[in-house]
Amino acid sequence: MTFSREEHLWIPESDLEGMSVDTLAVRAGQIRTGQLEHSDAIFPTSSFVYGSAAQAAARFGGEEPGNIYSRFTNPTVQAFEARIAAMEGGEKAVATASGMAAILSTCMALLQSGDHVICSRGVFGTTNVLFQKYMARFGVETSFVSLTDLDAWRDAVRPETRMLFIETPSNPLCEVADMAALSELSRANDALFVVDNCFCTPVLQRPLEQGADLIIHSATKYLDGQGRCVGGVVVGPAKYLDEIYGFLRSAGPTMSPFNAWVFQKGLETLPIRMRAHCNNALELAKWLEGQPAVAKVYYAGLESHPQHQLAKKQQDGFGGVLSFQVKGGREEAWRFIDATRMISITANLGDVKTTITHPATTTHGRLSPEDKDKAGITENLIRLSVGIEAIDDLKTDLTRGFQALKD
Ligand SMILES: *Cc1c(COP(=O)(O)O)cnc(C)c1O
After folding, report:
1. Does any ligand 1 atom lie closer than 6 A to the CB of residue 351?
2. What pLDDT, on the 0 to 100 scale, is given for residue 1?
3. pTM for this predicted structure
């Protein structure tokens, strides 16, 4: 059969196979209406109409595929899901109202009372709360272990272990997990291996290719990249995604069409943004290492990083987040932060604008002193989510911080 452009308003799925993530970011999942718009249409509608009572019945009965109600399906949301699924190399994706809704939906759909989860210790604070406070209330117990200590993971396994959950690289110390080893451990114990791929995005790391069963994203971070919307997504094989979709459809933390449209457009620039984030972060990490007022820099792109080789093997870049310790304690860290003028003081990350954070009193402020100690969250630690501003302007702003430490 010859291919007719006139009959194809969007690229046939078979053509997408083998395309690079750069191309998929721009081309996968696009739908066009009869208006032949070049950019992506947005469908801000809660429900859909039918041509007849019989068609409505067929839709509701499942005999005819199609949209019914936007808590179930919406074309804009589906377009975003198709694009991120293609980029991650997953069979399906399900978009959610936030990154936390993605994690919650995964747990609710695939775990039950009596199950056990092993989670890496440095995960996003709210993920920690979700497991410790809420999942525990429903009979799901979670053990927290060091991301990089494989023996601790093996020791934590119980007969009822059903899920291994990690973030790699970790926040804020950029520790890197050995995904192949953890995948093997999960398989040997019939447990799901879930990777929160928020920090790398599919541009830098595709966990499904490295043995993960499911990928979680807070789309709020790099997928949007411009701080506009809160959202999340789960990617993986249909056998799990259909279950997660079923929960979402019943429980309701779905993504709005407007947010899906913003994320869909955000993905188009994700590859070039990620490269810019990586270049700036590596340059800053090296520059910070040479500063006399800096005690230590944490960034997997540095040769001094203990998992540098592993990061090189698993990732196509080292990401945009780094952290460093200034000599001194909280007072010095705060003085440094307050002396910057351009860089945003905020706990958000993954934005084109560089952000600066004091983890010990913000993102990780709820941890007990003992847990902070275990997680390496010291009072003199500062996290940077490096944006895409010109490197010299970033250095100029950070130099103000160093100047303040001398004064
Ligand atoms: C922000 C974040 C989340 C939570 O996502 P929300 O969109 O804020 O709900 C989960 N995991 C990681 C790694 C994050 O950075």
Report:
1. no
2. 56
3. 0.96
Which amino acid is it at 378?
T
Strand partners, 320: none
Amino acid 31: pLDDT: 85
As to burial, measured by CB atoms within 10 angstroms (0-12 exposed, 13-18 middle, 19+ buried), residue 2 is exposed
Q: Is the C-beta atom of 218 inside 6 A of ligand 1?
A: yes
- CATH 3.40.140.10 holds for 13-268: no
Pocket test for ligand 1, best of 194, 221, 321 (most atoms within 8 A of CB): 221
Domain ranges of the chain: 13-268, 271-406
The whole-angstrom separation of Cα 197 and Cα 168 is: 7
Atom of ligand 1 nearest to the CA of 126: 4
Are the CB atoms for 374 and 121 separated by under 8 Å?
yes
Place of tokens 């103000």: 400
Q: For residue 220, which atom of ligand 1 is closest to its CA? A: 7
Alpha-carbon dihedral sign for residues 49, 52, 58, 64: negative
Q: Name which of 300, 22, 284, 275 is nearest 168 in CA terms.
A: 300
- Tell me if 178 CB under 6 Å of ligand 1: no
Residue 357 parent element (H or E): strand 355-357
Looking at domain 271-406, which of 3.40.1620.10, 3.40.50.880, 3.40.50.1820, 3.90.1150.10 is its CATH number?
Answer: 3.90.1150.10
List, for the chain, all residue ranges whose pLDDT scores fall below the cut of 50: none
- How far does the centroid of ligand 1 lie from the alpha carbon of residue 131, in Å? 14
